[in-house]
Amino acid sequence: MSRAASVRRMTALALLAAVGAALPGVGAAVPPPPPNPSDAELHAGRAAVQQAAGQVGELANRLAQAESRLLDLQTQVELKMEDANKARVDFQRAARAHADARRAADAARADADAAARQVEQQRSRLDNFAASSYRQGSRLGSVTAFIGAKNPQEMLDRAVFLDAISDSQLNVLEDLERARVEKVNKDSLARAALQEAEARRLEADRARVAAEAAEREAVAAQAAQAEQARRLEADKAVVEAQLAEARSRVAGLEAQRDRYEDWQAARQREEQAAAPTGRSVEVVIARALSQLGVQYAWGGGNAFGPTRGIRDGGVADAFGDFRKVGFDCSGLMIYAFAGAGIPLDHYSGYQYQAGRQVPLSQIRRGDMLFWQRGGRVHHVALYLGDGRMVEAPYSGSRVRVAPVRYSGIAPYAVRMF
What we know:
Residues 49-125, 185-273 form a coiled coil. The protein is an alpha+beta fold.
């Protein structure tokens, strides 16, 4: 570097330092930016919230249906329990009626047997009396005269000649026979009532068994439905917790984005307030655009304009760059930013580290764009806005304006203002 160039460079640096020291915020330590979640992270978080909310809604509907079914089953259980209670009461009543009928039948049978015995005893006494009369020479020819008679009156008709038998004895026998017939009829009715009571008892017992089985089935169905409702409630609680977590995460990401945007706005205001007079983006851009059409020369260009290129032992030599006066990509940046008093090294890798790196989503007019391969910077251009840039592209070409190429572009632009 010539002595004159060295003097000019030192003067520019001194002027820059003096202007920076005179402005507030320049040279002060800048706090690092807060975390800035990506749009993809925010989108994924919101999608997770939407999905969890949908699951909560679906489970809430299913739970409402399950609870409605549970209430219906509870009503059925109560009805079945009442049916079973009725069947038990009916069975108990039928059992008591059967027991009463059995006791009545037993009493009727005993009465009939007692009456038959009394009739037989009275007949025996009559037989004895007739035999005694015959032995005493009564007009009764033989006891066989009245044996086999169907009733007392027939016996009397056959034995009218037997004066020794009194009317009172005949009346007793007739009364006994009538009582025996009534008790036999009562016994028959009692046995019929017992059979009917037994049939009703068996029917009531079958109804009781069926009602108790229906009650058990209803209780089991209710228990199964209650378990299903419990599982749905547990699943809903889990998904609600996931929804709350997803909402909290999204809220946290959105809060981070808000803080980052606030930090960025404050930084931009600080930069605008601290920008020294004459350090103009438009000056830099104007100097770069003033060199449109100047040929590419590898290694060419400095703060004062195009210079002769140098040998590279390869492509540049093949195009004769060492014989041309022009710019390479980093040389054009040196010339453009020198108009604002900002010195740059003639190496795109160092230029990538010269200013503040900003995400490509936030680039603005006057930022430098870089391209990498394998993590190494190999090209630089000046962003003009609206997706266009000015660059010295490659050997054999000239300084030009072109659309921004995003293939291989570095993730950050460099801002010098």
